Write the structure tokens for this entry.
Amino acid sequence: MTKSRVNPRYMEKLYTFYSPFYDYVFGKLLGPGRRRAFRYLSCRPHQKVLEIGIGPGSTLEFYPPKTTVVGIDISASMIEQARKKAARLNGSHFDLRVMDAAHLEFPDNHFDIVMAAYVITTVQDPYQVCREILRVTKPGGQIIAVNHTRSRNGSLMGRIEDLLAPVFVRIGFTTDLDVIRVMQDVGITLQQAVPCNLLNTGRIIMGSKPPGR
């Protein structure tokens, strides 16, 4: 599967609608995975980090001091909320932009780390987004995704996820995408996937860009 059932215009409008209260509604459900992901973040000073789908800035305060954070989101309203939050924080530099994750406006091999929390299941072409993530990451650079990923083929949960996908896509994400497989297929080297969130429904998926790519 190269493209999902996701409609990008619908998603942009939906997350624009969510922007004023996103953290209040989804914070308790999705926040634990975001926070836990930072345990695995490389903490060298002066790193350049790209966060894809930064939303209203839910993670800004978790970045180590002296980090340059470039955050993008398809929703201008989300970026507006994130800029308000960034203005209240000190210690890191935040560059927040409206941008499509499938068409990143950055050169190759540009970022030390790329973070993508709850993004890959919200886009129309997850393979293209993951290819872009790989492209802009420096060789040997860290890639962290926090996401639901479809259960293995043949499992009861996998069949349930397939059935629920048309319902959940109206809420803002799809449940029938094997995010781990997509990341591997585009050439991201995966190290581990750690369960997170309520009932372990999410995964913190840690990988890197192979040297020489």
